[in-house]
Amino acid sequence: MENLKLKAELYRLALSCGFITKKDVINWADNEIMISEKPDISIIELSLLGSKNVEDIISKLKEVTGDIDEEVTLKILLGLFYKEIIKNPNKIQVISTELYHLYLSLQIENKKECYLWMMYLDDEFHLAYNGTYGDVEEVKFRYIDFLKQYKEYAIDFPG
Questions:
Q1: Which residues contact 49 (CB under 8 A, 6 or more apart)?
Q2: What is the pLDDT of residues 4-50, one digit of tens each?
Q3: Is the Cβ–Cβ distance between 42 and 32 less than 8 Å?
Q4: DSSP structure string for the chain
Q5: Contact, 6 vs 59, CB < 8 A?
Q6: Are 58 and 16 in contact (CB under 8 A)?
Q7: On the CB side of 92, how many CA atoms lie within 13 Å of its CA?
Q8: Whole-structure pTM value
Q9: What number of CA atoms fall less than 13 Å from residue 103's CA on the CB side?
Q10: How far apart are CA 137 and CA 74, in angstroms?
Q11: Angle between helices 54-62 and 4-16 (to 10 degrees)
């Protein structure tokens, strides 16, 4: 994955929904500076934000120059969620919440089917988890089925 803006957007979304920490972002920025002959000024500034709050870091990640395909970015992130839920199925509640926050943080006007699935699965999980309606294990399998379609997009992350 060579596109710096795509990486920055992945880090922004992952940080926004709690998938990674601000320390992960700072470490990434430091690494980008070390491997680049001429690092993007936003990456240098990002590297210096370790004592700032998450919102400042998210804002700085938006400033990295370049273009991205938000749909591809989302697919990569959903692939990462798939890897995480397969590795640790007990994190279903955390992943459900992260997907919900991801859904809310996306600035895409025409939210497609996968965005609606993220909302639906979060609602379904919480109803089952609270004993109101449904079964948590069934919802977990639906989550896995939904995320499985994105597994080919998963990358090594953070990195």
A1: 22, 26, 56, 57, 60
A2: 888 898 888 888 877 788 999 999 999 999 998 888 898 999 999 88
A3: no
A4: ---HHHHHHHHHHHHHTTSS-HHHHHHHHHHHHHH-SS--HHHHHHHT-TTS-HHHHHHHHHTS-S---HHHHHHHHHHHHHHHHHH-GGGHHHHHHHHHHHHHH---SS--HHHHHHHHHHHHHHHHHTTSSS-HHHHHHHHHHHHHTTGGG------
A5: no
A6: yes
A7: 22
A8: 0.77
A9: 19
A10: 25
A11: 150
pLDDT digits (tens, 9 = 90+) for 96-152: 777 777 777 766 555 566 777 777 888 888 898 888 998 888 888 888 898 899 999
C-alpha distances out from residue 48 to 17, 57, 64, 114, 117, Å: 22, 10, 14, 36, 37
- CB under 8 Å to 150, separation ≥6 — which residues? 75, 76, 78, 79, 81, 82
- CB-based contact 40:64 (threshold 8 Å): yes
Assigned token pair, 13: 């979304």
Identity (one letter) of the amino acid at 119?
M
